[in-house]
Amino acid sequence: MSGLPRLKHRVYSILKVSRKPGDASWNFDVFIIILIVGNVAAMLLESIEPIRLKYSAEFKLFEIFSVTIFSLEYILRIWTANISPAYPSPVKGRLKYALSPLALVDLLAILPFFLPFVGVDLRLLRVLRIFRIFRVFKIARYVTALALMNRVVSQKKEELVLSLIFTLSLLLITSTLMYYIENEAQPENFSSIPETMWWGIATLTTVGYGDIYPVTPLGQFMGGVIAVIGIGLFALPTGILASGFSEELTNRKEKINCCPTCGRPKIQEYEI
């Protein structure tokens, strides 16, 4: 192998997450993580008006530098994607990789910077600048804990979707009931079912902001029942995720304690 194919494989090996401290891939990972953390810090500091006004030129230069690095990384990842067995096709493989979650995060991290150059309305750009926060999610490629969370959510997605549907259904039912109970007594606060949903969300989550609350005896009784239901309701996704983490950690321990060649449990020797 020589020339361009060799360069391509070299770039691919550097872009892969390294498990060996000190090599080129490891150094690249550390550099990208530091750059991501720096971008998050810059975004937080830029929201403070005196700092933003005083260091606006420095923030702009750092933004240009960061976007340049992230853009080159994104282009190189797309270029080398078909080396991976998961994306073998030169065209379809790269397209499939480009639509993967981490690749979309990489794209959204740089997209707001380039939108003004294609004639996007500046008012829309101000809204889309929120996508800069996606730079923090780029770190998921390098942090084992975030990769673990991604696997757990992927494995438990059906249970999580069911719990979400159940929550939305209960929100709709409780908001509808409370609207018909309280509308006559408080037409300004419970003016419609969508308006009442704000009260439903605050009550089911047991936050209870206190800006909207029932005043009729039946409404207060229903509000108490719904608040108690909310305590158990929001424990559902927590329990699902907790069981998923427990299963995933157990599987990881079993893999670590198994022989990599035969797959049988390792025999531990103890000193007497």
From TrEMBL:
Q: Where are the transmembrane segments?
A: 26-45, 57-76, 97-118, 160-181, 221-245
The compartments listed are: Membrane
Q: Which UniProt keywords apply?
A: Ion channel, Ion transport, Membrane, Potassium, Potassium channel, Potassium transport, Transmembrane, Transmembrane helix, Transport, Voltage-gated channel
Its membrane topology, per UniProt?
A: Multi-pass membrane protein
Q: Does the record's keyword annotation contain Membrane? A: yes
**Ranges for the Ion transport domain?**
27-248
The UniProt entry, under InterPro entries, shows: Ion_trans_dom, VG_K_chnl, Volt_channel_dom_sf
Primary location recorded for the protein, binned into one broad class: membrane
The name on file for this protein is Ion transporter
